[in-house]
Amino acid sequence: MKVSDIGEFGLIDLLDKMASKAEVRATTAGEELIIGIGDDTAAWRGDTSVQLATVDSLIQDVHFTLDIIPWEELGWRAITANLSDIAAMGGRPRYALVSLALPGDTEVADVTALYKGMIELARQFEVAIIGGDTSRAPLVIINITVLGNNESSHILTRSAARPREKVAVTGHLGASAAGLEMLTKGLQFNPGAMTVLTRAFRQPWPRVVEGQILVEQGVRAAIDISDGLVADLKHICQASRVGARIEIDRVPVRSEVAANFPDRAMELALSGGEDYELLFTASTEVMERVKEAVSCPVTVIGDITAENAGEIVLLDRNGNTVDQVSAGWDHFSRRAS
Amino acid sequence: MKVSDIGEFGLIDLLDKMASKAEVRATTAGEELIIGIGDDTAAWRGDTSVQLATVDSLIQDVHFTLDIIPWEELGWRAITANLSDIAAMGGRPRYALVSLALPGDTEVADVTALYKGMIELARQFEVAIIGGDTSRAPLVIINITVLGNNESSHILTRSAARPREKVAVTGHLGASAAGLEMLTKGLQFNPGAMTVLTRAFRQPWPRVVEGQILVEQGVRAAIDISDGLVADLKHICQASRVGARIEIDRVPVRSEVAANFPDRAMELALSGGEDYELLFTASTEVMERVKEAVSCPVTVIGDITAENAGEIVLLDRNGNTVDQVSAGWDHFSRRAS
To answer: Regarding beta strands B321-322 and B141-150, do their DSSP bridges make them parallel or antiparallel, or are they unpaired?
Structure first.
């Protein structure tokens, strides 16, 4: 059955039922929900904590191609970017509004799979899908707004990095970009590596829990790695008016990337992007506390400097400056794949 | 200069400066704003009133074509739909997140004009643009999320209509659809009518002030007319499990529509859509209070019935049932123009 067979209102009904059936509405967030999908707006009871809002678009043939990602994983991946943005502020994601644009000949089963993947990840963090919009379009466009809040004493910002702080990153880098390349070019590696790289690209995990721990432990400056390590660190440096030095040998490259892309592993880790790890700065003392408090790896990769404001200096094992690799992916200037 | 010449980050910088320069941030809403555009999320101090959120997409060649609407008016029209949704809940719009997808060869001047039109209308209601997202795409896609709140004792919903209430509508109907048709087909009318119809299509006015007055005066059920009078009344009837009777001769057709589309004026008024007037139900007593309190026309066009739940009955001047005209525009089943 095609989307055009059931029409816009039919599709809205179907997706609303999916969002309602999922336990996402029976969560803490859901208790304060007054109206979900089905009226002119969603409505819920507010609170006096700091409110957070972020929006992100995935556009077919720009951000993804349907030949290398199934619909369900596409739904998962679509909402990851938003959840990760909330994580990078140290917040708790609570509500999502999903705007879908689809060709009329899209299979209804594909749309419900997309929604299922989205709900699956949302449910992990008790995020309720409370609204949205569907339209016809010549290509698939997924636009998600996530609202969250932060009940701590402060939020994590890009502008709070200070000279002499250490720079650290959660998890490992490069696997999402490596997975994209592997899938696009049809590269064959051993099954274990292929599983890891495929999953890193299709179903990245937002560091929502870790972001909240960073705040609790006293971190003040953070960003999530969506554009790439160097590009995102540059965002911190520009906003904070500081510089940064990265010792590239300390960058935690995912082992499957190092093994299968020996010549390009560092480039993928430094500028691949979409790993959705958290990049943050803090004093040595706070770093130690963070390492103990989180259950994922945390690696110190460099430090913040007063000089070279807005710039990233990359150092090799001998302390020599190395040429800056391409600084992330600028949507208008370069192609996705 | 093209968008691809300044890149994604260049474009974000430019749009952020426009949003900052506009006084929209120096409004009541702005005072509670902690972070606008430029970090991972926007952030502001919450309050305990009812929070409202709505999202709406405009897609090139589906919802608009660039030959019949200039960029600045496109920006205005894009945000109208969202502001109108907040109005239909009796709320006050406060913050907007704007997600733009554009071909790389779009002129930067066109994007800034789009943004200017959006800011111009947002400013009328003290709405601050606090975040967004830009992407490259093969066509123009404008996705706007508006957040608002309602500090009254209740909100306006689709599900609160009760039998024996009167059905009323603000303003006049049919001009937006008539304007679209006039511009698409290049029809020529007298200059005054052309100005009215062009403006109704390109720069519709959301009934934000009126929505709040409806709540204050005790109205409980409302919707904004985006799909068309009959289709939107049907949404109320289905959500409220009631029926409705409309006396079509009482429907306030815009005079320029009646004069220039004599055969089709009623059809345009009943199912044209995108007039962004408010359609609501209330007792005769409340209706009288509303008429006195608002400065725009309010016309009673029918009543709510216990029978025929979910259905709209159209009556002519003799009280005879007339055939239902096409019930609004379903995005997947029919074309825009």
So the answer is: unpaired
Poorest-confidence range of A15-29, A231-245, A274-288, B145-159?
A15-29
Structure tokens at B50: 């009812």
So what's the pLDDT on residue B95? Answer: 95
Q: What string of DSSP letters covers B68-88?
A: SS-HHHHHHHHHHHHHHHHHT
User: CB neighbours (10 Å) of residue B320?
Assistant: 8
Q: State how far Cα B221 lies from the chain centre.
A: 17
pLDDT < 50 stretches in chain B:
23, 26, 326-329, 331, 333-337
Interface predicted TM-score (ipTM) = 0.91
Q: Using CA atoms, how far apart are residues B88 and B83, in angstroms rounded to an integer?
A: 9
**pLDDT for the residue numbered B44:** 92
Residue A336: pLDDT band with limits 50, 70, 90: very low
> Which residue type, as a one-letter code, is found at position B299?
T
Tell me phi and psi for residue B32, to 5 degrees: -95, 0
Query: What is the pLDDT averaged over residues A272-277?
Result: 95
Rounded alpha-carbon distances, angstroms, from residue B337 to A138, A295, B329: 15, 55, 11
SS3 for A214? helix
pTM of the predicted model as reported, rounded to 2 decimal places: 0.92
Instruction: Note whether B40 contacts A88, CB cutoff 8 Å.
Output: yes
Specify the 3-state DSSP secondary structure of B114.
helix
Domains of chain A, start order:
3-150 (3.30.1330.10), 166-322 (3.90.650.10)
% of chain A residues with pLDDT over 90: 81
For residue B107, the chain A residues in CB contact (below 8 A) are none
Q: Which of A35, A332, A335, A337 is the best residue to mutate to test the B interface, defined by the most B CB atoms within 10 Å of its own CB?
A: A332
What's the CA angle centered on A44, arms A40 and A50, to 5 degrees? 120
Q: Are A143 and A97 in contact (CB under 8 A)?
A: no
Question: What is residue A22's predicted lDDT score, i.e. its pLDDT?
Answer: 59
Give the contacts of A150 (CB within 8 A, at least 6 positions apart). A49, A50, A52, A89, A90, A91, A92, A215, B43
Task: Find the residue in B nearest to A236 (Cα).
Answer: B39
Shortest Cα–Cα distance, A295 to chain B (Å): 23
Q: Are B247 and B315 spatial neighbours (Cβ–Cβ below 8 Å)?
A: yes
Secondary structure of residue A60 in the 3-state scheme: strand
Q: What share of chain B is helix, strand, coil (3-state, %, to 5)?
A: 40, 25, 35
Closest to A246 measured CA to CA, from A146, A335, A323, A141: A323
Contact flag A133-B57 (C-beta cutoff 8 Å): yes
Nearest to A54 among B40, B48, B148 (CB): B40
Which string of DSSP letters, residue by residue, matches A281-300?
EE-HHHHHHHHHH-SS-EEE
- φ, ψ for residue A162, nearest 5 deg: -125, 145
| Mean of pLDDT values over A319-330 | 64
Beta carbons of B39 and A11 less than 8 Å apart: no
DSSP for A231-285 reads HHHHHHHHHHT-EEEEEGGGS-B-HHHHHH-TTTHHHHHHH------EEEEE-HH
Among B1, B32, B40, the residue to mutate for chain A (most A Cβ within 10 A) = B40
Query: How big is chain B by its Cα radius of gyration, in Å?
Result: 20
